[in-house]
Amino acid sequence: MKNWFTTGALLTTILMAGCATSGIEAIGKPADAKVKKHLIIHNEPLADKITITRMRTRMAGDLLSVEITLTNLSSRDMNIQYRFSWYDADDFEVEQDKHGWTPLTLHGYADSNVTAVAPNPLVKSYKVNVRENR
Asked: For residue 95, is it left (φ>0), alpha (ψ between -120 and 50) or beta?
């Protein structure tokens, strides 16, 4: 009985915290905390339908280069847009709002590789933002 109560309280806390943000940071999916910190989903209905299944980074000269694999967890094709946000060592966003949204069709249960290179050498980390393409 105590386990059920604890589980219920934990789930309620997680759901309430997720609903308090304007961009949903992958609530529910994926379970991997490393992936959660890199994926921001801006449409609640997409939060359980898209995840990152692979992430790779390397230095291209003095610039961070990123390749991620976005995976559609549903059977329906999804027309989405994505955009990378870049952060410096102090976790401040670099060149905010200078990068546009890129359209992408994710077919049902399919993967799509997305690559990007940081805009300058100050970048140390990134997030990929995903939203519906309207």
From this structure: left
CATH number of 24-132: 2.60.40.3230
Q: Give the whole-angstrom CA distance, residue 9 versus residue 13.
A: 6
- Give the confidence band of 19 by pLDDT, cuts at 50, 70, 90: very low
Does the pTM surpass 0.85? The reply is no
- CA 27, CA 85: separation in Å to the nearest integer? 19
CB atoms within 10 A of CB 31: 9
DSSP state string for 48-103: TTEEEEEEEEEEETTEEEEEEEEEE-SSS-EEEEEEEEEE-TTSPEESTT-S--EE
Return the domain boundaries, the chain. 24-132
pLDDT, one tens digit per residue, over 31-67 is 566 667 888 888 888 888 999 999 999 999 999 999 9
